[in-house]
Amino acid sequence: MNVSQQSADQAPVRLYGPVPSRRLGRSLGVDLVPYKVCSYDCSYCQLGHTTELTAERREYVDVAAVLAQLRQRLEQGLCCDYISLAGSGEPTLNSGLGWLLRQIKALTRLPLAVITNGSLLWRADVREELLVADLVLPSLDAGDAALFEQVNRPCGAIDFERMAEGLIAFRRQYRGTLWLEVLLLDGLSDMPERVAPIAAWVERIRPDRVQLNSAVRPTADAAARPLSPAQLQALAPLFSAPVDILTAPAAAPVPSPDSPAASAASLSVLALLQRRPCTCADIARGLGLAPQQVIKLLDPLLAAGVLHSCQRDGQTFYQASAAGR
Question: What is the pTM of this model?
Answer without folding.
Answer: 0.76
